[in-house]
Amino acid sequence: MRMTTLTAAGIEPLFRLLGRYMQLEDADRNALTALEAGPVCYREARHDIAREGENPKVVRLLVSGWACRYKDLPDGRRQIVGFFLPGDFCDLNVYILSELDHSIGALTAVRYYEIQPQQFQTVIEERPHLLRALLWHEMVSSGIQREWLLSIGQRSPLERLAHLFVELYYRLQAVGLATGLSFDLPITQNHLAEANGLSLVHLNRTLQEMRREGLIELADRQLKIMDLDRLKEVAMFNRNYLHFNRQ
Amino acid sequence: MRMTTLTAAGIEPLFRLLGRYMQLEDADRNALTALEAGPVCYREARHDIAREGENPKVVRLLVSGWACRYKDLPDGRRQIVGFFLPGDFCDLNVYILSELDHSIGALTAVRYYEIQPQQFQTVIEERPHLLRALLWHEMVSSGIQREWLLSIGQRSPLERLAHLFVELYYRLQAVGLATGLSFDLPITQNHLAEANGLSLVHLNRTLQEMRREGLIELADRQLKIMDLDRLKEVAMFNRNYLHFNRQ
DNA sequence: TCAGGCCGCTAATCTGCGTTAGAGCGCCGC
DNA sequence: GCGGCGCTCTAACGCAGATTAGCGGCCTGA
Q1: Vertex B51 angle, CA B50 and B56, to 5°
Q2: Among chain B residues 199 through 238, which have CB within 7 angstroms of nucleic chain D?
Q3: Contact between residue A15 and residue A239 where contact means Cβ atoms under 8 Å apart
Q4: pLDDT tens, residue by residue, B189-246
Q5: Interface touch A98/B142, C-beta < 8 Å
Q6: Which nucleotide is nearest to B204 (CA to C1')?
Q7: How many CB atoms lie within 10 A of CB A204?
């Protein structure tokens, strides 16, 4: 088993992310550390974290690695409907809904906390305005889903992929995981194809086109954006749906 | 101007819908009538109710007619990302997010209430568990979006359209707007095409195929499901994502 | 009464993208 | 040291679905 480098990030990515929504103070960071109470869970790449139909009673907070929400059809077709990056919650909604309507899978080796309802209560009681930040986060997730619908329904494969890369760039930057215009893209082309509703072959073709056009470089799981402005133009990218109100 | 028949539905569709999520009593219905306090708003078909970028400070509760959430690209391409049926809220999230990341348009002539934050507060204070029902509704909307992503990304046009019709059937049935296996489908083929990421021509072809297959009849804006079981099979329909826990 | 807009429907053409097949490479376990 | 697997990449082929164009019916307003 290959061990990925696991930085001891804890709630830091989450704190940075929520800080994009509203001004936070050290007291907020301290309150959020209550979420680190439980043990850290691990999961290997390509394994499920939760399956459709289950009824988990915990919320997961991703600490390192990438995971995804996906849905599949009886005949095996599969659609990734969202990526989870460090600092993201997998399904705040389990406190309301009784049954998962989708699955959650680890795309790389991941680490996460399992958070009990009562831990959230502790946080909210200490810093009530964090509830607003958490709901905000949930609604941004919903907004990202809408943008993906627009992408898959209307954008061409090139536009679609360009849009995804810009989105990932901004999200990773928000949690401190981008250096300059580069970031780690630890998932396979198959995952990208499943997220974009494309065949693997055509995804690869599209990737080659982006390289030829001088939009990106991608090698060794490192994505480098060569021309952010042109990439955004191609993607018709409007960052409003991420609702990063600050910075 | 042609006047559509406007039944005096008030909060009845909403009450029925929430009743699918949890057991409600007359006291809940009474509390919900606080939402009818404001004047009824009207909007003609093909007009916008709200535009992307705006910051409405009210939530709309649709009373009659159909509306949609949509997003558009600078070059005019347009994707419908959700339908609003009577009893649906257009954007509970305006209490959290500062700016709309999508537009809302009337597909037919519609009537709706504009609800002030304080009206919600009244309702919640009187019947606290209704907050849970409202959040539930919001999360079901999010689940529907995920299912649409699966549809557009993986289902064939025939499967996709079949799935949409089954979904609409269940949703309309929940608010009392289906009679037997028939319901009013007051939108154009163009709207169906925009919701399914298909061209108008191909949507029409697909519709013909469904008729030939004996799955549906559609004429005069009335959709009749001829064989629900086969339609669900074609669509690979699993109703879990609607989270109707009761009945 | 006529013109124009909206809507449903169909035919012909072309191409973007899926499918199938297969090569090369690096990693891992045996 | 070898076999197998996961991943990237390419070529050839064929079809599903976009595009363009156009007809006819209905409704509405001038």
Answers
A1: 55
A2: 199-202
A3: no
A4: 999 999 999 999 999 999 999 999 999 999 999 999 999 999 999 999 999 999 998 8
A5: no
A6: C9
A7: 15
Instruction: Count the neighbouring beta carbons within 10 Å of the beta carbon of residue B238.
Output: 16
Separation between Cα atoms, residue B135 and residue B141, nearest integer Å: 10
Measured CA A170 to C1' C18 distance, in angstroms? 31
Q: What is the pLDDT of residue B246?
A: 82
Amino acid identity at B214? G
Assign residue B98 a region: left if phi > 0, alpha if psi is -120 to 50, beta otherwise? Answer: alpha
Asked if B156 reaches chain A (Cβ–Cβ under 8 Å), the answer is no
The string of pLDDT tens digits covering residues B37-82 is: 989 999 999 999 999 999 988 999 999 999 999 999 999 999 999 9
Q: CB contact, 8 Å: B102 with chain A?
A: yes
In the structure encoding, which two tokens stand for residue A137, read together? 């986060």
Reported as a single tens digit per residue, the pLDDT across A20-55 is: 999 999 999 999 999 999 899 999 999 999 999 999
pLDDT of residue A8: 52
Q: Which residues pair with B218 in a beta bridge?
A: B223
Q: How many angstroms separate the CA of B154 from the C1' of C7? A: 29
Q: Are B200 and B193 in contact (CB under 8 A)?
A: yes
d(CA B49, CA B94): 14
Q: Is some CB atom of chain B closer than 8 A to the CB atom of A148? A: yes
pTM, 2 dp: 0.95
Q: How far is the CA of A156 from the C1' of C4 (A)?
A: 35
Distance CA A124, CA A75 (A): 43
Quick one: which H or E segment has residue B81? strand B78-84
| Separation between Cα atoms, residue B8 and residue B31, nearest integer Å | 18
Closest by alpha carbon to A103, among A127, A77, A81? Answer: A81
Residue B160: name the closest of B198, B127, B189, B190 by CA: B198
B24 near B15, Cβ under 8 Å?
A: yes
Q: Does A77 contact chain B (CB < 8 Å)?
A: yes
* Spans of chain A below 50 pLDDT: 1-7
Largest CA distance in chain B: 54
